[in-house]
Amino acid sequence: MNSFDEVPSVPHGPRLKEDVSCRTAVDCANRQVMSSLRRALLCLVSLAMLAFGHMLHAQERAAPDRELVVATKAAPPFAMKQTDGSWSGISIALWKRIADREHLRFRFVETQSVPDLLDGIANGTFDAGVAAVTVTAERARSVEFTHPFYNTGIGIAVPINENPWVSIGRALLSFGFFQAVGVLLCFAMAVGFLIWMLERRKTEHFGGGAKGLGSSFWWSTIAMTQAGAAQNAPATLPGRIVAMGWMIASVIAIAVFTAGITSTLTRRGLEGAVHGFNDLRSVRVGAVANSATTDYLGRQRLSFRTFPDIQSGLSALGGGKIDAFVHDKPLLTWMVRNDFSGSVRVVDTSFSSESYAIVLPRNSALRPMLDLAVLDQVESDWWQQTLFETLGTARSP
After folding, report:
1. In what order do the strands lie in the sheet with 359-360?
2. Residue 325, SS3?
3. What residues contact residue 276 under an 8 Å CB cut-off, 6+ apart?
4. In angstroms, what CA-CA distances link 242 with 192, 219, 222?
5. Maximum Cα–Cα distance for the chain, whole Å?
6. What does the alpha-carbon distance between residue 151 and residue 148 come to, in Å, rounded to a whole number?
């Protein structure tokens, strides 16, 4: 056979097609296997994540295996130390109820002040703090707070037997009194100037520059007080028209002014000088040192004198050393009602807004559990009954 002999043909078409089909089937099988493996792996990862989540949740809900050190401070009626060393009060009852339901072991440790309590929690000495601790932005920078369990405001205590002449004297020397007198004098001078412009060339006693202007001011003031407006009165028709209108208007103005002053003096004589926050600017004010109240008064640029505790502040108030003492209203009301009811009363008003909460260290593992526990308790009938029995109100303000 030479090079030109015909070479038997090889059936390339069918075999090639068969090879391609085989490779495609293998690829499909591989893909199915890989897909199954991926699904199985995904299921395993999901199960692992679910189990891990349940484990974390269980760890969060589980009670610590050690005794918690809970700081507190005497703040009736929220935290009160009994003669046998035990603790009671609204906040204490709330903590004990939560601890019982969550199986927490704890012991109370007394601190002398709220700053001491906060410092101990911030440095890890205490695991929690329960008393009447107000939530503020400054404190939240070093510790954490649970959901608030009580909302309140700042109250004002004043002496019962305040000297009425002292109150009247303060009223007459107040800014509002001088403001009202100043407004009346401004109107009198404006009318006097208008009378001078109309009469200076035609009426002798209103002429002559500064002398005539002074006479018109004097006549306008006399006319306002209804004490002899006929003498040296305007002589021209325009001047008399203005004078007549001024005398009628001054009767109304003086009547309103007199009624306002009489009402103010009567109220202050009967009820005292302080009725709300704005009255604190004109009296001597006291507050507990290093408290949320002093922070608020400082932001309002109101001067005040500090005392180490509520008792000393109320004693100073009863002794006449200050005119008003401000503090958290429920604590102030409780202390006045039990120890100072004969010499001090709490004004029926409040200002600012404050919330009490349980204090925790930063990133405390107790936070999720206590947040939910506090919400459960404050929404319960037990909590409403506790508030009613202790404070006489079924809900916090």
Report:
1. 106-110, 68-72, 128-129, 359-360, 144-145
2. strand
3. 156, 347, 349, 351
4. 10, 13, 15
5. 161
6. 7
- Tell me how far apart the alpha carbons of residues 236 and 200 are, in angstroms, rounded to a whole number: 10
Residue 233, amino acid = A
Cis preceding-peptide flag for 330 (omega within 30 of 0): no
Which residues are paired to 305 by β-bridges? 286
Distance CA 220, CA 229 (A): 8
**Token pair in block for residue 149:** 């369990």
For 12-77, what is the HEC assignment? HHHHHHHHHHHHHHHHHHHHHHHHHHHHHHHHHHHHHHHHHHHHHHHHHHCCCCCCEEEEECCECC
Instruction: Please state, in angstroms and rounded to a whole number, the distance separating the CA atoms of residues 120 and 69.
Output: 10
* Rounded distance between C-alpha atoms, residue 357 and residue 91, angstroms: 9
Q: Can you say whether the dihedral through the CA atoms of 141, 145, 151, 155 is positive or negative?
A: negative
158-217 residue pLDDT tens = 988 665 566 666 666 666 677 777 888 888 888 888 878 888 777 777 777 777 787 787
Helices (H) and strands (E) in the chain, counts: 13, 13
Question: Using CA atoms, how far apart are residues 336 and 314, in angstroms rounded to an integer?
Answer: 8
Query: Which amino acid type is present at position 333?
Result: T
**3-class DSSP state of 111:** coil
The amino acid sitting at 95 is: W
Q: What is the pLDDT of residues 9-31, one digit of tens each?
A: 444 444 444 444 445 555 656 66
pTM of the predicted model, to two decimals?
0.58
Q: 375 exposed, middle or buried (CB, 10 Å; 0-12, 13-18, 19+)?
A: middle
φ and ψ of 141, to 5 deg: -75, -20
Look up residue 132 and give its two tokens.
Answer: 């009447």
Q: If we measure between CA atoms, which residue out of 95, 119, 60 comes closest to residue 358?
A: 95
What whole-number distance in Å separates Cα of residue 171 and Cα of residue 165?
Answer: 10
